[in-house]
Amino acid sequence: xxxxxxxxxxxxxxxxxxxxxxxxxxxxxxxxxxxxxxxxxxxxxxxxxxxxxxxxxxxxxxxxxxxxxxxxxxxxxxxxxxxxxxxxxxxxxxxxxxxxxxxxxxxxxxxxxxxxxxxxxxxxxxxxxxxxxxxxxxxxxxxxxxxxxxxxxxxxxxxxxxxxxxxxxxxxxxxxxxxxxxxxxxxxxxxxxxxxxxxxxxxxxxxxxxxxxxxxxxxxxx
Length: 222
Fold this sequence. Notes:
The chain has 2 domains: 3-116, no CATH class; 128-214, no CATH class. It has 7 helices and 4 strands, in the order H-H-H-H-H-E-E-E-H-E-H. It has helices at residues 6-11, 15-34, 48-81, 85-97, 105-112, 171-176, 202-214, and strands spanning 140-147, 160-161, 167-170, 191-196. The longest helix has 34 residues, at 48-81. Mean pLDDT is 82; it is low at 216-222.
């Protein structure tokens, strides 16, 4: 999807889908900040992100220097053999690269940034689902529900995002939101719910078992 099409695409989504995208962008930005000071080893003088930024700057400088000659090659191919989607796309990309040194290019980058059409991207430490101080921040679990006589259904729950069989839920909400967590027993006796915690993290398994023991009317199947 082109950058210019993302705002209208986002605005056309449901509130639940918009919230899922907002949380994903929020998570990515948080981890980018988190890893800025991380080093591969104690002996490294420069953080990993700083090294990557240096390499990225050198690559962009080289790409900008070569884009004029490469654009001329593709334009000549179009004149010789006619237009094609691949050649036209390559020319479009190279013309965009030519704008990297333009004074207005930073304004273009700002206009396609998620901040221009997604509100509230800053993590909120006072919300159970947005607390970066927790070790499980940014992680999602998988939810799969089955109704009797059905191969699978999308669980209709405010904390769950997506559709069967790819529904997800925040680990923090699943384990700590005692009032709304779908771990609680429902009145629907014909539905089986399966929850998958990502990775082999025994802490989450122990916490989930503890939460199950203290929730009222919890489900028998996890």
